[in-house]
Amino acid sequence: MKANITHDAWLKMQGFVDLCPDEISGLGKVEVVDGEFYVTDIAIFTQTVSPTHSTIPSKALAQFQVELIKKGENPKDWWCWWHSHAKMEPFFSGTDKATVESSTDFDMLLSIVSNHKHAFYAQFDMHRPLRLTQVVSVEVLEEENEEITAWVQAEYDAKVTRPVVPVYNRGFGFSPKTTSRDDDDWDGLPTTQPKAGDKIQGKPVMKQSLIVNADDLAEYQAELAALGEELKDARHRKDGEAIREISSEIYEKQIDGFYCGYEQVFPTRKI
Question: Among 120, 132, 178, 214, which one has the highest count of C-beta atoms within 10 angstroms of its own C-beta?
């Protein structure tokens, strides 16, 4: 089974992925020809992005469907869900799998994960009339359209929000006005992992101390606890692949939590 992406659709999707340093997501229009899938168009929605999540308000999705109907299109044709893993490898995290399982509004769902290296992972899921999951290959059909890049930039600027969060600024301490995540050369991690008591430029490094929203902190801790339960289950089943995926997701979330002030010390990866 193969998923074909027209070149115009690929330029849109990969353009959004390349522009966004964090995770970003949207939908794609799918046509089925001789048993093969063709993604022919791409859309994004108003959303807030972070290194591990993109949040799209349900109102934005509803408005998109209304606009399709006004144009005489069928919203049910848009059954490709695409998102990025930025600089991470393309794979289905525990969150991604949960999203697929909860997407029961779709009889069928084609899911594509891309990254900044232009690598793909794609999966086809059928919810009705029977439950089916199958990994599919991805092929980009060659075409050219120089106008797509400008359209992608305009849509991204209008719809994607990256909250300014306090992050380590490669000097010492933390500054709410410094977002190293906007540095195109930054790989998502500090160049060093400072500890309390270390000295940088002759000044002591302190533990991060930030005022955080209690509700946001509680939500973060609940998500970590849920991932912890998933990891316990994977270890009980001795599922090596799931253990690696969930461990990576926990580590990414803890890094994000460190920069948001939820963690006081930089996380150490545990396998």
Answer: 120
250 with 228: CB under 8 angstroms? yes
Per-residue model confidence as pLDDT tens for the chain (271 residues): 788 999 899 999 999 999 999 999 999 999 988 878 899 999 999 999 988 889 999 899 999 999 999 999 999 999 999 999 988 888 888 888 888 888 888 889 999 999 999 999 999 999 888 898 899 888 888 766 667 888 888 999 999 887 765 444 433 344 443 344 444 443 444 434 444 455 444 444 444 445 567 777 888 888 888 888 888 888 888 888 888 888 888 888 888 887 777 777 777 665 4
Beta bridge partners of 133: 125
The DSSP bridge partners found for residue 44 are 26
For residues 183, 188, 194 and 196, what is the CA-based torsion angle, rounded to 10 degrees? 100
CATH architecture of residue range(s) 2-161? 3-Layer(aba) Sandwich (3.40)
Interacting residues of 209 by C-beta distance below 8 A, sequence separation 6+: 261, 264
Query: How many CA atoms lie less than 13 Å away from 230 in the CB half-sphere?
Result: 21
Copy the structure tokens of residue 222.
């609940």
How many C-beta neighbours within 10 Å does residue 146 have? 7
In Å, how far are 36, 65, 133, 205 from 2, measured between CA atoms?
A: 6, 27, 13, 52
- Angle ∠(101,106,110) on CA atoms, nearest 5: 75
Cβ neighbours of residue 130 closer than 8 Å, sequence gap 6 or more: none
Residues of the chain with CATH 3.40.140.10: 2-161
CA gap 256, 237 in Å, rounded: 28
